[in-house]
Amino acid sequence: MSSAFSTSTARNIFFGGTVFFFLMFLALTFDTQQQLPQRDQRAQLSNPQIAAGKKLWEVNNCIGCHTLMGEGAYFAPELGNVYKRRGPEFIKAWIQAQPTGAPGRRQMPQFNLSDKDIDDLVAFLKYASEINTANWPPNIEG
Amino acid sequence: MQYKSQAVAKPYFIGALGLFVAQILFGLIMGLQYVVGDFLFPEIPFNVARMVHTNALIVWLLMGFMGSAYYLVPEEAERELYSPKLAIVTFWVFLVAAALTVVGYLAVPYATLAKITGNDLLPTMGREFLEQPTVTKIGIVLVALSMLFNLSMTYLKGRKTSITTVLLLGLWGLAVFFLFSFYNPTNLVLDKFYWWWVVHLWVEGVWELILGALLAFVLIKVTGVDREVIEKWLYVIITLALVTGLIGTGHHYYWIGTPEYWQWFGSVFSALEPIPFFAMTLFAFNMVNRRRREHPNRAATLWALGTGVMSFLGAGVWGFLHTLAPVNFYTHGSQITAAHGHMAFYGAYVMVVLTMISYSMPLMRGRQANSNASQVMEMWGFWLMTIAMVFITLFLTAAGILQVWLQRVATTPLSFMATQDQLALFYWLREGTGVVFLIGLLVYLASFFKGEKVAA
Ligand code: HEC
Ligand code: HEM
Ligand code: HEM
Ligand SMILES: [Fe+2]
User: Fold this and answer.
1) Most buried pick, A24, A94, B270, B404, via CB within 10 A?
2) Which residues contact B318 (CB under 8 A, 6 or more apart)?
3) Contact at 8 Å (CB) between A51 and A45?
4) Which tens digits make up the pLDDT trace of B99-156?
5) Which residues of A touch B256 (CB under 8 A)?
6) Which distant-in-sequence residues (6+ apart) come within 8 Å of B111 by Cβ?
7) Which domain holds residue B108?
8) Is the model's pLDDT at B456 over the cut of 70?
9) CA-based nearest residue to B225, from B239, B238, B235, B215
10) CB B199 within 8 A of CB B127
11) What are residue A72's DSSP bridge partners?
């Protein structure tokens, strides 16, 4: 690179560019925060079951096998829309019945959850399925 | 090695390579569970193996960055490290914390681990890559602060070069953005939104500063090209990285409940993210072609060139492949993502750490470069691991395309599990290639024990 373009010019462009685009990113973040109430179903969060369900989701590491809205692990079905795909009764029965023990088939552990725990998890999955995800996934299979 | 205290890097590198082995072993366990679903169940469920695999990766890369920084900063600052003792104590704290965490993952159910580590007081666990108990996260912050204090003091008291400025900015940024891992609201959209401030703003933000600085350092050393030239390149590369990568975060905000304008911002800015990676490739090759000396450590030069090429392929090409919103609509959370994640992490961050290790380990062991026999062996390790990673990526990409087709595009879509059955062939091929990767790693490690003296 020519000597007209000095290291200190390069450094100034770096700092200037970074600060400018970081501020722009913050501005977009601010705008997103303003718009989220229309999309993220936060009114539902007054239901304490959802917070309890999310906690159970986390401490049992469901994300270590499943995706939720396409993020997580790719070993087991998408669960962001499982409430719509399967409905509450199936989900409850499913969690209680694990593992299937089918030879050679991928296994989901038994988490020994109480009825209340499973209801909380279902409430969390219902809430997740109602977030406005711009029509993702492409179909019900996730 | 010009300063005695640079040697504190050595335990960091050895610890990092140990965890690398653990990472790959658990990768192979998961690879087998993909096709033999009940393998090791219920002793090691898939999610447990995955935590060990990904957390070992992150921790060993952090150890590698830290070791690299402890080696690099004194040399650039032209003075001894502020406190070598603190660096060593910090290493042991980090290693023990990492080991205890892994034991915790393997020994007790995750929910029990959460309970005994007090997750209730400050729930941060159970999110991808951030599975560590909250106490481990606090430990990571303390380890990072200790390192930043030590290095910043060294920097402030010594010569300030562009390379150390950029490296320290990157390391400070790493610590600052990690703090978002402590923010875990019940609102799932906000949780996911700020989760990416750790994950994306690390790998496509501040870590690129670290990557650029380490590569620049090794290139100065092995090519003897003017510092002026190299430092200008460095600034251009990191400018491009942050200008595209900050708003490029939007490529994760398409389908998680965030406003739809992110489909535009994310697509446009992240489509430009390959440019800094391409610049990195040009940088490495240009400097090596313009070299003013023949450095006896040819293996280190190979690793540096490899980093340039593979980071561009993994992050640049495989990133671009699925980054535009209309494509990502179909590929989101599929094996395509896994393919990209593997090659990008390997090509950029694994390889740059191995570049630093390759360059600095011989110096710390009292020689300019290893014997010819040892270097040849190291280069075998390079090629085996790199080619294996290319094929792992290709097989996962094939699996991903088929998965998207069968499950998301076809007029009568198959269920997730039925689709997985159709992909078994590619998963077997991936597993076989994974074994080649492991062999490459073992050959690489063996090269450290080969021929102390110049080969007869
Ligand atoms: C060790 C991996 C693993 C973990 C951890 C795990 N799952 Fe699963 N899960 C699976 C697998 C594999 C299947 C599909 C099994 C089959 O079809 O035979 C599955 C299926 C399901 C299904 C049915 C999906 C459908 O579309 O039919 C639900 C619901 C579910 N899991 C919920 C959960 C919840 C809730 C958690 C956390 C408490 C969890 N899973 C944790 C592996 C796991
Ligand atoms: C022996 C070779 C390897 C095998 C068989 C292997 C296997 C796997 C498997 C099965 C997963 C889980 C995918 C899922 O969520 O369903 C995974 C995840 C991951 N692995 Fe590996 N791996 C190997 C080597 C590596 C290497 C060398 C790296 C780093 C460079 C790496 C980085 C990752 C990352 C970052 C993830 C998370 C991916 C994501 O969430 O998209 N792996 N690996
Ligand atoms: C070295 C740099 C990079 C690394 C280490 C990296 C790693 C990863 C990983 C591990 C994931 C999976 C995250 C998850 O589990 O949810 C991911 C996702 C993604 N990456 Fe990268 N990446 C890098 C650079 C890039 C670049 C430059 C682009 C774009 C050009 C890109 C585009 C994407 C996209 C679009 C996703 C989301 C995939 C999905 O929707 O499932 N990445 N990356
Ligand atoms: Fe990203």
Assistant:
1) B270
2) B339, B340, B343, B344, B393, B397
3) yes
4) 999 999 999 999 999 999 999 999 999 999 999 999 999 999 999 999 999 999 999 9
5) 69-71, 131, 133
6) A59, A60, A111
7) 1-160
8) no
9) B215
10) no
11) A67
Residue B33 and residue A106: Cβ atoms within 8 Å?
Answer: yes
Please name every residue paired with A71 in a beta bridge, in sequence order, or none if there are none: A68
Q: Is the CB of A75 inside 8 Å of chain B's CB atoms? A: yes
Total structural domains within chain B? 1
What digits encode the pLDDT tens for the residues B184-197?
999 999 999 999 99
Pairing of strands A67-68, A71-72: antiparallel
CA distance B81 to B314: 35
pLDDT for A2 equals 54
Chain A contact present for B277, CB below 8 A: no
Q: Is A48 exposed, middle or buried (0-12, 13-18, 19+ CB in 10 A)?
A: exposed
- Is the per-residue pLDDT at B237 higher than 80? yes
User: In which region does residue B40 sit, left (phi positive, over 0), alpha (psi from -120 to 50) or beta (all else)?
Assistant: left
Please check whether residue B123 lies inside any domain of the structure. yes
Give the residue extent of every domain in chain A.
1-38, 41-142
The one-letter amino acid code at B223 reads T
List of chain B residues whose C-beta atoms are within 8 Å of the C-beta of residue A30: none
Cβ-in-10-Å burial (0-12, 13-18, 19+) of B311 comes to: buried
The CATH T-level fold of domain A41-142 is Cytochrome Bc1 Complex; Chain D, domain 2 (1.10.760)
**Ligand 3 near B251 CB (within 6 A):** yes
The Cα–Cα gap between B215 and B277 comes to 12
Which residues, 6 or more positions from B412, have their beta carbon under 8 angstroms from its beta carbon? Answer: none
Structure tokens belonging to residue B140: 């990571």
Q: Is A67 helix (H, G, I), strand (E, B) or coil?
A: strand
Residue B185, preceding bond cis, omega within 30 degrees?
no
> Is residue B190, in this structure, part of any structural domain at all?
no
Residue B150 CB less than 6 A away from ligand 3 = no
Of B36, B190, B332, the CB nearest to A70: B332
> B280: closest CA among B333, B233, B223, B349?
B233
Chain A residues inside the 8 Å CB shell of B131:
61, 64
Q: With left for phi above 0 and alpha for psi between -120 and 50, is residue B129 left, alpha or beta?
A: left
Instruction: Assess A8–B contact: CB distance below 8 Å, yes or no.
Output: no
Query: For residue range B40-98, what is the model confidence (pLDDT) as tens digits?
Result: 999 999 999 999 999 999 999 999 999 999 999 999 999 999 999 999 999 999 999 99
Q: How many CA atoms lie within 13 A of B372 on its CB side?
A: 3
SS3 readout for B40-74? CCCCCCHHHHHHHHHHHHHHHHHHHHHHHHHHHHH
User: pTM of the prediction?
Assistant: 0.97
The answer to whether residue A49 neighbours chain B at the CB level (below 8 Å) is no
Q: Is the ipTM of this complex over 0.95?
A: yes
